[in-house]
Amino acid sequence: ILDLNNYSLAELVKRLSPDCLEMVSRCIWKGINSRCESLFQRIVTLEGYCCSFNYFADVHSNFPRKIAYQVPKRPYRVTGCGYPTGLSVLLDPMVSDYYSTFFSGFGFRLFIHDAYNFPDENSETKVVTATRESYVRINPESTYATNDIRRMSLKLRYCLFGGERQLPGHRRYSFINCMYQCRMNMTLQRCGCLPLNIAVNG
Fold it and tell me: Where are the membrane-spanning stretches (predicted)?
């Protein structure tokens, strides 16, 4: 059937996945109504397609061409605390389309992760149920290393800074991105293939 319709399996999965503009119908950033298509992009994760806000891990973005020039080159930042200074969205879970889900119930799973990291199973996860107003509090943490550590040899420090190694397809090196890349390399080496959703991502 796929061959008759000129579709690959990857293209079929992409077409059957919900579009971000259908799921994210209204966006308010820092108290200002904003175009959702300029805030959310459709990305591929190990869970399948997701709509992502503030995602800068991939070298290439998935924003529509007509608005790609408006998208900032760096992650969005809040200027204060409290929900009025953050992101508010109206979500449509499209319950009538449900056939099979990862968890019992209708709603969304939020993966909270660094803007430059691939969202994997180690990301903090929150569940937002349908027909409810939900508030998600994020307590950021910042870890940094001084230049004294940068001057040490790799053998002594056992870690890399973000710009010291390039990972294919990623803007920045990080432990999380490195582990993801290692898993994909091992899968390709041992099985001769990649998971469907990763193959779509290139």
Answer: none
Structure pTM? 0.83
Answer yes or no: are the C-beta atoms of 15 and 26 closer than 8 Å.
no
What confidence tens digit (pLDDT) does each residue in 46-77 have?
888 899 999 998 888 888 777 777 778 889 99
In a domain, 132, yes or no: yes
Containing structural domain, residue 41: 9-143
185 domain-assigned: no
